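Input sequence (142 aa), recorded before submission:
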Amino acid sequence: MKMKPILIAIALVLSFAAANAQTADTAKRAHSDTTIFTMVEKMPEFPNGGIGGFLKYLTDSLRYPERARQRGTQGRVILTCVVEKDGSLDHVRILKSLSRETDAEAIRLIEDCPKWNPGYQNGKPARVMCPINIPVIFRLPE
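Predicted structure, token format:
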């Protein structure tokens, strides 16, 4: 008779341990899918000329906002973003603002950017913070 409560207690402990192990495994997988690295084994890079090619893309693709042009707004917007596992840029964030119009144009440039070659960690594509703070320069001709 005393054996039955002990067996029930052991069964409960074992099922609780198994559930915890499964939850920990699921949490570990979910964490590895959402982790944003700052440094990885192979850093992401712009496919057409690396950082120099990326800065050329920014310069060539920039559309000076008309309102900013009329106001004589000049300077730079500094952004950062995440290079996703598929090479797309996401989670764009402005680090240094210039004006509402120039900020919107800088964000458009990043959102319309061609896909990068993704970063890799442990032989797998990884989410990585962009390896540079991205300067978008707004300069009116003299």
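Checked by second reader. The beta strands are 36-37, 75-83, 89-96, 119-121, 124-129, 134-138.
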